[in-house]
Amino acid sequence: MVLVKDGLVESAIATAALLMISSPGYAIARPRSDRGLSADVATDAVPTLKPGSSGQPVADVQQTLLAAGFYNGEVDGQYGIESQQAVGEFQSYFGLPRDGIVGIATWQALIYSSSGLPIN
């Protein structure tokens, strides 16, 4: 899924924010088989990420954790042990249960941390 606001594509983390917080002017666009975008109403939930997950959502999480100082590995879109440990440390910092899995509460904290607001 891709988030579109006024015709501009946003990140997967912003897409997760939209799924959790409704906001006027935004629409979910899902890729169609012809590689175009469709402004369908999203029925998919934000992805739960755990060891073995891969793809752009994982890379987005890795980049966010890297920027916040929790991850020092390669941003490669592969959810391995390093990503799991970084997510666990991030969860502990935000007072979330430390399980190393990116579910709804962790997505919300990641969105907050990437908003530019101080996390200390």
From TrEMBL:
Please state every residue range assigned to the domain named Peptidoglycan binding-like. Answer: 54-110
Ordered alphabetically, the record's keywords are:
Membrane, Transmembrane, Transmembrane helix
Q: Where are the transmembrane segments?
A: 12-29
The superkingdom listed in its UniProt entry is: Bacteria
- Listed InterPro entries: Peptidoglycan-bd-like (IPR002477), PGBD-like_sf (IPR036365), PGBDSf (IPR036366)
The answer, when asked if Membrane is one of the entry's keywords, is yes
Record Pfam families = PG_binding_1
Name of the molecule in the record: Peptidoglycan-binding protein
Which species is listed as the source? Answer: Vasconcelosia minhoensis LEGE 07310
